[in-house]
Amino acid sequence: MTSRRLLLFDFDGVIADSYEIYREISRLTFEALGMLHLGGEEAYLDLFEENFYESLTKRGVDLEAFGKASRSIVPRFDGRIIPLFKDVMPVIEELARRHTLVIVSSNSRHFITRALEGSGYQSLFADILGSDFMLSKVKKIAHALAMQGVAGEHAYFIGDTAGDIREAKKAEVKTIAVTWGWHSKERLLKANPDFLIDTPGELLTFE
To answer: Do 19 and 12 contact (CB within 8 A), yes or no?
Structure first.
């Protein structure tokens, strides 16, 4: 990356070490809906092989009912307790000096903002596009490109699930899969990312 680029970051699994919290929220939600078979670890990870909400629909989950049940459970969890990956944040600070950063997530903007507020990192991002904006990451990426006035060839999406990579490819941006998140390297490779990295510091090598 030799000039200012648009870097699109997934939040959970890339910036935030939130797997255990969100798996528990989802498990309780599925329990409330009487769909316990979706609460197991492998079944849960399978939901992120593509867009999370599309996966739910394909498995017979009513999104309105899922959202209602989830909203009744989320207040038990405080977004400010979600830990951020400590070795990721210094890299993001450095990248923000040189590039435009936007969060594109299946999580809600409210929860993401609460997680970032206490750390002071919220100001590093030009925008946060969460599930309350729209559900499709393909559309969110297209929106970010339009709002920032950047062509797809000058944008990178950084994600930790196969679904992230597949959606970003549909949006025609470059893809970077990270192995410290929710999906294993094997799952990520099947999605054919443009790049795959094992440590946050490697993000700086694209300079």
So the answer is: yes
Joined tokens for residue 106: 């299946």
Report residue 150 as tokens.
């950047």
Spatial distance between the Cα atoms of 27 and 89, rounded to a whole number of angstroms: 29
- Residue 103 · residue 128 · CB < 8 Å: yes
Phi, psi of 69 (to 5 degrees): -65, -40
Q: Hey, what are 101's tokens?
A: 């950063």
Amino acid in the structure at residue 105 = S
What is d(CA 67, CA 143) in angstroms, rounded to the nearest whole number? 23
Report if pTM > 0.90: yes
pLDDT, position 42: 93
Q: How far apart are CA 162 and CA 177, in angstroms?
A: 8
pLDDT of the residue at 2: 47
What's the start-to-end Cα distance of the chain, in Å?
A: 4
As a whole-number percent, the residues of the chain with pLDDT over 70 amount to 96
Instruction: Give the dihedral of Cα atoms 134, 137, 140, 144; nearest 10 deg.
Output: 160
Side-chain-side CA neighbours of 128 within 13 Å: the count stands at: 23
Segment 131-167, tens digit of pLDDT: 989 999 999 999 999 999 999 999 999 999 999 999 9
